[in-house]
From TrEMBL:
It comes from Acididesulfobacillus acetoxydans. Keywords: 2Fe-2S, Disulfide bond, Iron, Iron-sulfur, Metal-binding, Oxidoreductase. PROSITE patterns: RIESKE. InterPro entries: FAD-dep_OxRdtase (IPR006076), FAD/NAD-bd_sf (IPR036188), Rieske_2Fe-2S (IPR017941), Rieske_2Fe-2S_sf (IPR036922), Rieske_Fe-S_prot_C (IPR005805). SUPFAM superfamilies: ISP domain, Nucleotide-binding domain. This is FAD dependent oxidoreductase.
């Protein structure tokens, strides 16, 4: 009961990412005049900032455009593990793409770790960087052969992975692999330092400059929400979902998932290392150094965006896991994140389509964006400057593997189901809400999402997603309206939180009679 009380008290606080509250907000200007550039980069997360840094170093005129503030999206809500250990990925890639492409993936991610390490050392970036071992473990006998196979494949690819039957955490593991010379860091401290270097070297960063259209066939004209333009012969789209639907229909070849994080203060020293299990539900752990002492960051509970009912329960599940593993003194912060995955679990990085060879894509990092986004910057720099990259084959965006074909059918069948089911779902008639509650209601024959905030102000919006028309679902963990089809998310007043949707929801004027209080 005491443990649940601790969790309930913590859940009364609003979610906030430690990475954001421990760093200053940025104040780069909005695009206020038309500009020309050699390369326009859309998106100011780790992929976009890394690519811009590398291209500025090559002497190119680079403009970065972000819809919000830079480094505030998924990069600011990550676990921030810098590792080539991405679950049981190497055997998977070898089996579906062949050993050569698995080797490309391994070499690319190992190089990403070396690159970030060197960059931090050369520029003396203070970002809480520390070398750590990365462990993948299982508590299930049935997964031991998978762990053994992953070690075998990793060794063949040149990665040293050490098989163990114990790990430093107090867990009854059946098998584990240890990858040495991995790392963890503070992603915003690192990337804000890179952004400052980009400016020093003549690059441009513009915030609150959402790209709403891309016109032409090269050079391309990028039109922003404030009607200003950037014209460039080359464009990098590093925005999760591409912000423009070029041929390729990438929104049908990507899907989104939510995951959750809690930071706990524990009464014993954390043993060091970074951890993730091989089974589901996932449990990922690492130490989190703060000005107020060390915390343990516990992450997991993934699910498709817009799916599930009581999403706040995911936080409780992580807190329960932390309390079972450690003597928890307090929970300090919680947040969630949204990640984009491809159909075969390998990111799309490279030329977007054959018909648009100067439009470059970087997306689908599947929760491993610290190395994946860095790989994207390195690979795209090579394609733009040299015309080729040693890793381009494995990451080539237009690929369509056999496993991807099966996933394509499954994911789009799920989209079709949710599109139809959402239209058939009746809205509630009478509305009885307390502050902090929401409901999908039928108001004058129209489905309307209604929420009452702590000041008893009513927020009402049309709940039809502005992307392709799916019906939205309430997310009680983050107080948002989420799309179960392609993962768009909207705030209380209809503002776009996550794409692929580009347009806000229609707000509706609604006055409710005074809501009765509860007797409980």
């Amino acid at each position: 009961m005491e443990k649940r009380g601790l969790a309930d008290e913590f859940m009364a606080k609003r979610p906030e990412s430690f990475w954001l509250i421990s760093t200053p907000s940025t104040d780069y200007p909005s695009l206020d005049e038309d500009r020309k550039a050699d390369v326009a980069v859309v998106g100011g997360g780790i992929a976009g900032i890394t690519a811009a840094y590398l291209l500025v170093n090559e002497g190119l005129n680079v403009v970065v455009l972000d819809a919000d503030r830079i480094v505030r999206g998924t990069t600011a809500h990550t676990t921030a593990k810098l590792t080539s250990q991405h679950g049981l990925i190497y055997a998977q890639i070898r089996n579906q793409m062949g050993e050569e492409k698995a080797r490309q993936y391994a070499e690319a991610n190992e190089e990403a770790i070396r690159f970030v390490t060197q960059l931090i050392e050369e520029n003396k970036i203070e970002c809480d960087f520390s070398r750590q071992a990365a462990y993948i473990y299982t508590l299930e006998e049935t997964l031991i052969p998978k762990i053994e196979q992953e070690q075998e494949v990793a060794a063949a690819l040149g990665i040293k992975a050490f098989y163990q039957t114990e790990i430093p955490l107090p867990l009854p593991v059946k098998a584990a692999l240890r990858f040495d010379a991995q790392a963890q860091f503070h992603p915003r401290k690192y990337l804000l330092a890179l952004a400052a270097i980009i400016r020093e070297k003549g690059g441009f960063l513009f915030e609150n400059s959402k790209v709403v259209d891309i016109q032409g066939d090269g050079p391309y004209t990028l039109l922003t929400v404030n009607q200003k333009k950037v014209t460039a012969p080359m464009v990098i789209l590093a925005t999760h979902y591409p912000c423009h639907n070029f041929p390729g229909l990438y929104f049908t070849r990507l899907y989104t998932e939510r995951a959750y994080a809690v930071a706990a203060k524990i009464a014993v020293p954390f043993p060091g290392g970074m951890y993730i299990n091989a089974e589901q539900p996932a449990r990922s752990l690492r130490a989190l150094p703060t000005a107020d002492g060390e915390r343990v960051l516990v992450v997991g509970e993934k699910h498709k965006t817009g799916h599930g009912q009581d999403l706040a329960e995911h936080y409780y599940n992580l807190m329960t896991f932390a309390q079972e593993l450690f003597p928890v003194e307090e929970f300090s912060w919680r947040w969630s994140t949204q990640d984009v995955s491809t159909l075969d679990d390998v990111p799309y990085i490279g030329r977007m389509t054959a018909g648009h060879p100067d439009i470059y894509l970087a997306t689908g990092f599947r929760k491993w964006g610290m190395t994946g986004g860095t790989v994207a910057g390195l690979l795209l720099r090579d394609l733009i400057v040299k015309g080729e990259s040693p890793w381009e084959d494995v990451y080539r965006p237009p690929r369509f593997t056999a496993p991807a074909a099966m996933q394509f059918v499954a994911q789009n069948a799920d989209v079709a189901f949710n599109l139809i089911a959402g239209k058939l779902l009746p809205g509630q008639g009478a509305i009885h809400l307390q502050p902090g509650e929401a409901v999908l209601a039928n108001v004058d024959g129209e489905k309307t999402g209604v929420y009452i905030d702590a000041q008893r102000q009513v927020h009402a919006v049309d709940t039809t997603c502005t992307h392709l028309g799916c019906e939205l679902r309430w997310n009680n963990a983050e107080s948002s309206w989420d799309c179960p089809c392609h993962g768009s998310r909207f705030g209380l007043d209809g503002e776009v939180l996550e794409g692929p949707a580009m347009q806000a929801l229609e707000k509706r004027d609604l006055v409710l009679p005074e809501q009765p209080g509860r007797s409980d």
